[in-house]
Amino acid sequence: MKKQARNSTPKPGTHTPTPEKRKLVHDLAAMGTRHEDICDLLDIGSINTLKNHYSEELRKGRVTATAKVAQALYKKAIEGDTACMIFWMKTQGGWRETDRMDVNVKGAMTKSFVFKILKPGEDFPIIDAEKDALD
User: What is the pTM of this model?
Assistant: First the structure.
């Protein structure tokens, strides 16, 4: 069953792509516009028709936008933006954030975060809180 776009009833076989429409689809896909909304804007009756005529623009638009955002994030991380650096290391460097409760000799509890770089496929170690508190 074909997915129909909302509020659109064009005649079958009447859609003709143009260079302007191809650029528009590319740009809308790059911004994350839903396929149904692109169909409505171009008076295309189904998502299947959109994909048949503009599959390359839909794919490349999304990839182009993702690459630009990744490039901007990477640049900010390299320039020393701490939040970007941490995000990059968590998503690309294998870092994980864990909560850890420490109890000192006087009984006061403190909360700290521990970062550990894991090798691909390595499981995060289970910490024995009682043993660590006594050591």
Answer: 0.56
Look at residues 52, 57, 69 and name the one whose alpha carbon lies nearest to residue 33.
57
DSSP 8-state assignment for residue 45: S
Residue whose tokens read 């090798």: 119
Residues 71, 36 contacting (CB under 8 angstroms): no
pLDDT tens string 10-23 = 555 688 999 999 99
- For residue 100 the two structure tokens come to 């850890």
Question: Who's near 36: CB < 8 A, 6+ residues apart?
Answer: 3, 5, 6, 47
Measured between alpha carbons, how far is 48 from 26 in angstroms, rounded to an integer?
A: 16
- On whether the CB atoms of residues 133 and 114 are closer than 8 A, the answer is no
3-state SS string for 84-130: HHHHHHHHHCCEEEEEEEEECCCCCEEEEEEEEECCCCCCCCCCCHH
Please name the residues in contact with 16: beta carbons below 8 A apart, sequence gap of 6 or more. Answer: none
